[in-house]
Fold this sequence. Notes:
This protein is of the alpha+beta class. It has four helices and six strands; from the N terminus they run ββαββαββαα.
Amino acid sequence: MPKMSEHEEFLSAEMVKxxxxxxxxxxxxxxxxxxxxxxxxxxxxxxxxxxxxxxxxTMNKTTRKRLAAAYGDDSVNWIGKKVRTELLKxxxxxxxxxxxYGHPVEKPVTAEEPKLTEQEALKRLEGLDLTKEDKxxxxxxxxxxxxx
Length: 148
């Protein structure tokens, strides 16, 4: 029986789980607001999923900033690097959706990897200009995902 998700070109939250390790396949590219059809520019990059499938990820700004800080500003240097997924529920244009966030992986993720402390999780948000409520929701999502 064919699986529809195997024939989807773009990465969606249903294709990954918290803590999955994705490999960056290419340098990606920025699309103009006109090209996206959403009225705003976007960055798309190909990633290899744990099952070997390659999908296009429309990467959010927070993830781009994290990867640039870890792997360098030029995304060509990201090729072959790993990204650990984090799934969070958020309001997107008035609808609650599961959003994929990424964290740079310097070493392979293992089942024995310790969970984050609340202090470590909040440190990741430094410089992002978030409200106390945003930070509270972030911690709540991490707890629900078993990452905290």
